[in-house]
Amino acid sequence: MRLWKRHDERDDLEALLRANRAEPREDFARSLAERIAETAEPAGRRSASLRFAFAAGLTAVLFTAAGIAGTIAYSKNGGNSQSNGGNSKSNSSNSSSSSSANDQYEEKVTICHIPPGNPSNAHTIRVGESAVPAHLGHGDSLGPCPS
User: Which of 6, 52, 60, 115 is the most buried (most CB within 10 A)?
Assistant: First the structure.
């Protein structure tokens, strides 16, 4: 895009060439248009088949992705498709299902945790077996806190 127009000899030459350019004969242009119209495929057919192919391909990709996501969720759940009673959080501490996910983590131990400096805030927590010695070392006890 030009921000300014410069008038020089090239502009005059360009205008002269455009004004005197050769035009095809009318009968040649008409015969060429007829030949193109005879051999041309209807525009609607081609675009419709391309749209259908695109929609089918996209559907296949989406179904594949949904299948992969479902497989991952199924294996993460250990194949257990039971409902958890409408709760969005699953209570894995009470779960005794045998899934591969349970084998990845160490066993949990229930302790009564008494926070240092705040003994009135004692509460029951579950920690990994490796954390039990540290908790017992600062005064926590095994088992749930008394009510």
Answer: 115
- Encode burial over 71-82: b for 16+ CB neighbours within 10 A, e otherwise: eeeeeeeeeeee
Contact partners, residue 145, CB within 8 Å, separation at least 6: 112, 113, 122, 123, 124
Q: Quickly list DSSP for 85-98.
A: TT-SS--TTS----
User: Are the beta carbons of 127 and 133 closer than 8 angstroms?
Assistant: no
The phi, psi pair for 109, rounded to 5°, reads -125, 135
Say whether pTM exceeds 0.70: no
Report the SS3 class of residue 51: helix
The Cα-based distances of 18 to 13, 28, 79 in angstroms read 9, 21, 76
Q: What is the pLDDT of residues 15-73, one digit of tens each?
A: 888 888 888 899 999 999 998 888 776 666 667 888 899 999 999 999 999 888 887 77
